[in-house]
Design brief:
Shape: globular
Strand order of the largest sheet: 2-3-1-4-5-6
Low-confidence stretches: none
Bound molecules: guanosine-5'-triphosphate, magnesium ion
Structural class: alpha/beta
Number of helices: 10
Strand content: 15-25%
CATH topology of the largest domain: Rossmann fold
Radius of gyration: 20 Å
Mean pLDDT: 95
CATH class of the largest domain: Alpha Beta
CATH architecture of the largest domain: 3-Layer(aba) Sandwich
Largest sheet: 6 strands, mixed
Order of helices and strands: HEHEEHEHEHEHHEEHHEH
Length: 299
């Protein structure tokens, strides 16, 4: 009987912050599943990624976003708009700062966000990398900014996450279940697979090159119940980049493929034959048509 009296709480909670602060790592840690790709390179996340936290009396829909930066391409503008959209029609907001690094633009980016009166938590991430006493001045700097709470966490070790989750639940209101209770993301298998391939490109390729990489899954065929064949194109912006993505005698493409395959096999629960093809698409980051084909369109 007690169960019927407990109100069901739900809400949308966006996660925003500068590039590389650990937004996607936090999303995955909160959901307990790999929903978003993560990499040491800034601007890993390009579109809104939803992760759903289901409990007997709640459903929290977390929305991961691209890092706040100055857009220089049409893709960058799409990413910027994704962040702004994630500030509307939400029930709570998590702003993340990286407590372990100096970022001149971080404070301005945090203060520049239009919070629209949404209950907002400031989360200071990566505390596993710092001496505890360095937190105090950081907390003091934001003390007057009207945050619901300022919470130190480590998305990597999980430190502080139960408290963050409790704090978010405390500000959510009674509401409906937006998604089925067994679903942890509305992303399609194809979207997740394209991201897992791009994630390996981000890890393995140098410097600026990964920013010009796009991945499109063209076809998925179930050859046998225990074997899936997947065809995907990797786009890059220049012929010289194509050579680097393929590598000497295909060594780089082989590495990207085998590392992505291991993750895709874990996702699908079958063996995977992954067929990757590298294509040059000059300036795709500024082409409305190419952006649409790669799924960088408004939902
Ligand atoms: N030591 C440590 N590293 C972390 C922590 N959280 C994230 N990282 C690392 O920080 C890097 C960036 O993490 P992401 O989760 O991709 O960051 P993001 O904010 O989503 O980045 P963008 O999508 O590029 O904006 C990765 O190398 C993570 O492993 C943390 O709590 N501690
Ligand atoms: Mg991210």
């Amino acid at each position: 009987m007690a169960e019927q009296q407990t109100p069901f709480k739900s809400g949308f909670v966006s996660i925003v912050g500068r590039p590389n602060v650990g937004k996607s790592t936090l999303l995955n840690a909160l959901i307990g599943e790999k929903v978003a790709i993560v990499s040491p390179k800034p601007q890993t996340t390009r579109n809104q990624i939803i992760g759903i936290h289901n409990g007997p009396h709640h459903q929290v829909v977390f929305v991961d976003t691209p890092g706040i930066h100055q857009p220089r391409t049409r893709l960058g503008e799409f990413m910027d708009k994704t962040v702004r959209d994630a500030l509307t029609a939400i029930d709570a907001l998590i702003i993340i700062a990286d407590a372990s690094r100096e970022d001149d633009q971080e404070e301005a980016a945090i203060r520049g966000l239009d919070r629209r009166g949404t209950p907002t938590f400031l989360v200071l991430n990566k505390i596993d990398l710092i001496q505890p006493h360095t937190l105090l001045p950081l907390i003091a700097r934001y003390a007057e900014d009207g945050f619901e709470a300022i919470l130190p966490i480590s998305a990597k070790t999980g430190d502080g996450l139960p408290k963050l989750m409790d704090s978010v639940l405390a500000v959510l209101q009674e509401g409906p279940r937006y998604y089925p209770s067994d679903q942890f993301t509305p992303q399609t298998e194809r979207q997740i697979i394209a991201e897992l391939i791009r994630e390996q490109a981000l890890y393995l390729l140098e410097e600026e090159l990964p920013h010009g990489i796009g991945v499109e899954v063209l076809e998925m065929k179930e050859l046998r119940p225990d074997l899936t064949e997947i065809y995907a194109d990797i786009y890059c912006e220049r012929a010289s980049h194509k050579g680097m993505v393929i590598g000497k005698q295909g060594s780089m493409l082989g590495k990207i493929g085998s590392r992505a395959r291991a993750q895709i096999e874990a996702l699908l629960g079958t063996q995977v034959a992954l067929k990757l093809w590298v294509k040059v698409k000059p300036g795709w980051r500024n082409s409305a048509m190419d952006l649409k084909n790669l799924g960088y369109v408004e939902q």
